[in-house]
């Protein structure tokens, strides 16, 4: 059987009318993809009423030099668990390399490093993740609902959250206003 190409380091975009409100206009940075399944961090929606300082306070970490930035809704799986998607210039306990482009860390050491001004140069914080069992994402990609495209630091770290979905499609040469909410038949 032919091994599927890894989508690690790509963006997964929810098409209009995906049928699951949790993923409506979702922008997911795929951080792991292989024979064991896939894991992604949502970067297209912010968690209401939660700031980074709130998270630090929950771990009794002095906010120090950390800005009180917004926290992303990373996905529906383990929404109480935090992750930092960040530039590859920092590594700590259990940091996962994402195709040599960025890194993902889900341990408290990165929170301390950011508060001390010694963390990665670029980062965003998310609660929860999106996960797929072995073969599940590949199956979903064969039906209407998801679109994959190249990710860039600009899309992850510079594009405003409410503009990422449209910007990611635009990067792929697609006008998102032209997307239909259902698949057609021929």
Q: What are the main properties of this structure?
A:
VC0467-like, alpha+beta, globular, 186 residues
CATH topology: VC0467-like
How many β-strand runs? Answer: 10
| Rg, Cα atoms, Å | 17 Å
CATH top level class name: Alpha Beta
Structure description:
It is a single chain. The chain has 186 residues and is α+β, with helices and mostly antiparallel strands. The chain has a single domain (10-178), classed as VC0467-like (3-Layer(aba) Sandwich). Helix content is 19%, strand content 33%. It has five helices and ten strands, in the order E-E-E-E-H-E-E-E-E-H-E-H-E-H-H. The protein has helices at 52-58, 108-115, 136-141, 153-158, 164-171; strands spanning 10-14, 27-34, 37-42, 46-51, 70-73, 77-87, 96-98, 102-105, 123-132, 146-150. Strands 1, 2, 3, 4, 5, 6, 7, 8, 9 and 10 form a ten-stranded mixed sheet that branches. The longest helix has 8 residues, at 108-115. The chain is globular. The two termini are 30 Å apart.
Give the gist of this structure:
The chain is α+β, with helices and mostly antiparallel strands and 186 residues long. It has five helices and ten strands.
Topology:
Blueprint: E1 10-14, E2 27-34, E3 37-42, E4 46-51, H1 52-58, E5 70-73, E6 77-87, E7 96-98, E8 102-105, H2 108-115, E9 123-132, H3 136-141, E10 146-150, H4 153-158, H5 164-171
Parallel strand pairs: 5-9
Antiparallel strand pairs: 1-2, 1-10, 2-3, 3-9, 4-5, 6-8, 6-9, 7-8
């Amino acid at each position: 059987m032919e091994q599927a190409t890894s989508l690690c380091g790509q963006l997964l975009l929810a098409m209009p009318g995906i049928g699951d409100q949790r993923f409506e206009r979702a922008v997911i940075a795929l951080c792991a993809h292989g024979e064991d399944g896939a894991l992604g961090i949502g970067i297209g929606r912010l968690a209401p009423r939660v700031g980074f300082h709130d998270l630090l306070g929950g771990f009794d970490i002095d906010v120090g030099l950390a800005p009180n930035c917004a926290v992303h809704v990373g996905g529906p799986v383990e929404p109480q668990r935090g992750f930092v998607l960040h530039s590859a210039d920092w590594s700590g306990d259990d940091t996962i390399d994402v195709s040599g482009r960025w890194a993902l860390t889900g341990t408290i050491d990165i929170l301390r490093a950011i508060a001390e001004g010694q963390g990665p140069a670029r980062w965003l914080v998310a609660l929860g993740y999106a996960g797929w069992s072995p073969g599940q994402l590949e199956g979903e990609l064969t039906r209407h609902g998801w679109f994959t495209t190249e990710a860039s630091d600009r899309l992850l770290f510079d594009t405003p959250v409410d503009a990422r979905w449209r910007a990611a499609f635009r990067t792929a040469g697609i006008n998102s206003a032209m997307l239909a909410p259902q698949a057609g038949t021929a």
